[in-house]
Specification:
The chain is of the alpha/beta class. It is 29% helix and 24% strand. It has helices spanning 16-26, 41-46, 62-75, 96-101, 129-132, 192-206, 218-225, 227-230, 243-246, 249-252, and strands at residues 3-9, 29-35, 51-55, 80-84, 88-91, 109-118, 135-137, 148-153, 158-161, 168-170, 178-180, 183-186, 235-237.
Length: 266
């Protein structure tokens, strides 16, 4: 039984090698669609052992393209798909593919609460954001209920994976049996420059009539999205990896299995 991760990415050069290299140690294949990157993301992906697609369409259409890659994974013989964002690290008690392979046939979806890592004044001077952002929020993401990411069993009746990869829908299963298994660490905002670019790309990729923050200048974007993060207090020191664990991994042998991370879902 094999597992494939799928990603739609745009302008994530500061983190993409770390997250994809981690995935390569956790699943059997990684399929990535690069959506109009101009910051070197595509060039990084071209030297990693992934199946890479190029997408130059103006609209991101994340749900449509993630679902298409999931169905491609099914055609390539995989039994599970892990839809990921470029700024996520997925953690499990053992290798993710092994966790999914060990599940009883009745389970169709494996869920993952999301913990946002945020910048602080105590961050080290490290270009790797997974090393640099060592503090995360104590509570998982979600205002009124916990937001979840999903891995889902691949079947011909898979209809769609929802926007944001928060649910999977099947033609023959209105409520697919679900088990909580993993934990997602989210590195959404990593530097002032990256924050501005992310907000601008979000507006550009949506291509809707509604104005998604495009009326804000760069300083106003930072005032809304970046500076409040630096003032947060409900945080816990919980780095995903130490530099010693990661040392030499990305540079020397992408795809080599990583040391055990030590963090498992509670």
């Amino acid at each position: 039984m094999s597992t494939c991760a799928v990603m739609l990415v745009r302008d994530e050069a500061d983190i993409i090698e770390v997250t994809v290299s981690h995935l390569l140690s956790q699943v059997d294949e990684v399929i990535v669609t690069d959506h109009r990157s101009v910051d070197g993301t595509r060039e990084i992906l071209e030297r990693l052992p992934v199946l890479l697609h190029r997408d130059e369409q103006p609209a991101a259409e994340q749900r449509k393209k993630i679902t298409a890659m999931a169905k491609e994974a099914l055609r390539r013989g995989h039994q599970w798909v892990v839809p990921c964002d470029a700024d996520e690290i997925w953690l499990g008690p053992v290798r993710i593919a092994d966790c999914l392979a060990g599940l009883d046939e009745k389970w169709m979806v494996a869920t993952s609460p999301i913990y946002n890592h945020v910048p602080t004044e105590n961050d080290p001077d490290d270009t790797n954001p997974v090393f640099r952002l060592r503090y995360r929020r104590t509570q998982p993401k979600g205002k009124h209920h916990v937001a979840l990411k999903v891995a889902c069993r691949l079947r011909p009746d898979l209809k769609k994976i929802s926007f944001g990869n928060h649910s999977a829908h099947y033609k023959e299963e209105k409520h697919p049996p679900t088990v909580e298994m993993f934990q997602v660490r989210h590195f959404q905002f990593r530097s002032p420059e990256q924050t501005i670019r992310k907000v601008r790309n979000f507006h550009d990729g949506r291509l809707r009539g509604k104005d998604y923050y495009n009326d804000l200048n760069d300083e106003q974007v930072l005032e809304r999205f970046w500076y409040p993060l630096l003032a947060e207090e409900d945080l816990v020191f919980d780095p995903v990896y130490s530099a010693a664990q990661w040392s030499g991994f990305v540079e020397s042998e992408p795809g080599r299995e990583l040391p055990s991370h030590g963090h498992v879902p509670g």
